[in-house]
TrEMBL record:
Belongs to the U2 small nuclear ribonucleoprotein A family. GO terms for biological process: mRNA splicing, via spliceosome. This is SNRPA1. One of its GO terms (cellular component) is U2 snRNP. It is found in: Nucleus. Its main location: nucleus. PANTHER family: U2 SMALL NUCLEAR RIBONUCLEOPROTEIN A. One of its GO terms (molecular function) is U2 snRNA binding. It comes from Mytilus coruscus.
Length: 265
């Protein structure tokens, strides 16, 4: 795989194509991630990213001049929800032979008001029921889908199928999004302790008398672990919950003095 760098962009073929558009040829480098396209200085009408290893369509800077984007033969399974903000004047998007799975994964293309040509041939999503009508409904400005002109009858059928409350429910049911994780996406953050729990642990750390005690409490805070009825050794002393308290009580022995930390529940 080759990283898409400013140097690679500078060294790649740049020419005027048969339709008199300035084109940047980035085919066949097995690029995994779209990045550093700011180095193009927005000087191209067409960018060809075919035959790479791209999995998510994102990472574009603001490219007002870009009109055509060719991403054939990749592994694209996701499209950024904010793609329209970066390439707002895009007219042609070719995503043939990729890995788009669900109709809902294409919803963000509806925000691309200049998009008139779209190809999703040889993507799993094309086998979904009502695929073509759903796309026509979600991207009303589209004129050609999969190299076939959209007919007025299709627009009317799409409008009829998805209009009204029942139509909206049908669209939501059909337009589910895939749940497959795409490398490069952020992982869902784990739920940590509540603010009250964090404050209790911080106070315990502030009142600690030895480095060992501080380190143990610090590790508890990092891992989000809040001790319950039984608390393991803290400075070598066993801390247990007292049943007669309204909540959990920590008894910490420090220099012969007993300190109490309450976890009210």
């Amino acid at each position: 795989m080759v990283k898409l760098t400013a140097e690679l962009i500078e060294q790649s073929a740049q020419y005027t194509n048969p339709v008199r558009d300035r084109e940047l040829d980035l085919r066949g480098y097995k690029i995994p991630v779209i990045e550093n396209l700011g180095a193009t200085l927005d000087q191209f009408d067409t960018i060809d990213l075919s035959d790479n290893d791209i999995r998510k369509l994102d990472g574009f800077p603001l490219l007002k001049r870009l009109k055509s984007l060719l991403v054939n033969n990749n592994r694209v399974a996701r499209i950024s929800d904010t793609l329209a903000e970066s390439i707002q004047n895009l007219e042609t998007l070719v995503l043939s032979n990729n890995s788009m799975q669900e109709l809902g994964d294409l919803d963000s293309l509806g925000a691309m008001k200049s998009l008139t040509y779209l190809s999703l041939l040889r993507n799993p999503v094309t086998t979904k029921k009502h695929y073509r009508l759903y796309i026509v409904f979600k991207i009303p400005q589209l004129r050609v889908l999969d190299f076939q002109r959209i007919k007025q009858k299709e627009r009317e059928a799409a409008s009829k199928m998805f209009k009204g409350k029942k139509g909206q429910e049908r669209a939501q049911d059909i337009g589910k999004r895939s749940k497959t994780f795409v490398p490069g996406e952020k992982l869902v953050e784990k739920t940590g302790p509540s603010k009250e729990d964090v404050e209790l642990i911080k106070n315990a750390i502030a009142n600690a008398k030895t480095l060992d005690e501080v380190e143990r409490l610090n590790q508890m805070l990092k891992t989000g672990h809040i001790p319950g009825k039984e608390i393991r050794r803290l400075r070598g002393e066993i801390v247990e919950e007292e049943d007669d308290m309204e909540g959990d009580e920590w008894n910490v022995i420090s220099n012969g003095n007993k300190k109490r930390i309450y976890l009210l529940v």
